[in-house]
Amino acid sequence: VISSEDEVVVEKSQTDSTATGLSYEDVTTPLTASQVADLVGADRRLISMVYRMAGKKGKEATMAPYLLVRFVRDEVLTDKRFSRMVAKADADRIHETGRQMDSVYAAGPVVAITDPAGLIAKADSAGAVHPPLQDTSALVAVVPPAPVAEPEPEPEYVPTPLEVLAEMAFTDARYPSKAVYEALKGAGMDITQEEMDILYLYTASRLYPEKDYKMSVGELLAFVGDDLLTDPSFTGLVPEEASAEIAEAREMLSSGTDILRGEECSLALTLTSYPGESAQTHEFVGRVQDLVDESLTGEHYLIGESVMYKELKDGFPAELLLLTILTVVAIFIIVALTFKSLLIPMILILTVMSGVYVNVYACGAGGKTMLYLSYLIIQGLLMGATIDYSILFTGYYRNCRKIMGVRKSLAVTYYRTVNSILTSGLIITIVPFVMSHVVKDQLTASIMHSLSMGALAVILLILFVMPGVLAALDPLVVPKKQRYHCE
Q1: Looking at the DSSP assignment, which residues form a beta bridge with residue 62?
Q2: What is the DSSP string of 340-393?
Q3: Does the predicted model carry a pTM greater than 0.90?
Q4: What are phi and psi for residue 248, nearest 5 degrees?
């Protein structure tokens, strides 16, 4: 029973707020850190640190108790960095308080109403109670006017070093190396500014790596020697042996660079795993030549074994044609003057040249290769070294045809020349063959092997092919007036 002049408040629903002693206004009214600390009887510095961790900075920063408890329960106690600092009993009380506040917050605020319809029982001046016009199950309470209290002045609060560290660790703000060093040093950690700078550099290299950044060995050694080793932050971290090795490497690099750099010209050295002469080597030299032509504007040259081989290869067709013409013409003139015939030089030259072609074909058919330089040398050597075998055989045959027939002339020619041809031919075949397996130089071994195989091919052609050619062309090889006509 209340006076008709008093204001009445009816709760929306029955809750356990009476059991907890909390109301919706209690858990949702924004309070400062000092007010919360006075309300719960906690240390103001501890509550202020929680406010700062939640992003509420400054003396006038406010936060509802319900949101504060939720933040502590859901953010602080779930973080291993801070949950270890809270005793289990305190954590249990925080969770219980959070459940109570959740219940009160879920019930919602109380509703202030008037009674225009006369639904609430009232008392008259005589003390008689008049029932309401209709039944109600609402709980009626008198709300007295709340006294207005003067706010207490907030004391100036200085956060502790641990509070500063907690704020740095919990927030997403970034701090320079010096600020972190001062915070750690104030918390009692044994660390130096140089160590913190190194840690920042290492972290930056891991978080922001420059994958495309390049530097030469000389630039790297110069940076280590002139910048790192002279910085007190790094001097104590590098052993003396490592510093001496770095200085020695710089001196060695400097002396080597002086050899490559001159007053009038400079030299760039390139080492590869390619063989001295191969298709891959020639392609590589061509790429280097194109790169040098694009990069250098002054006068420049490529020198070296592989470069020489490529230059020879590029001029091979013209050189081969010139060598063939000179060799054939020289031998043709000499043999033509010796036998006074134009057909015999052609037969002898074709026989010897066939030996060269057989050698090249045999190398290709066997899966081997022949250096083009070897081909040029072998053609000249075989033409000069084996042409005398053909001259010897043909000369004996022409002399025998003056006194005997074709068959007997071939038999006598074989008997008189085979020893000389085989003796000289086997020497020029066996010796180069042995040298090709003994000499380690690729070019020399290739030339010796080609010479051996070519000489063997020429000998076989002279002994087994040339007799048939001479017999078939006998009327043209032996003049009619010099031939023996009785068979």
Answers
A1: 32
A2: T-SHHHHHHHHHHHHHHHHHHHHHHHTT----HHHHHHHHHHHHHHSHHHHHHH
A3: no
A4: -65, -40
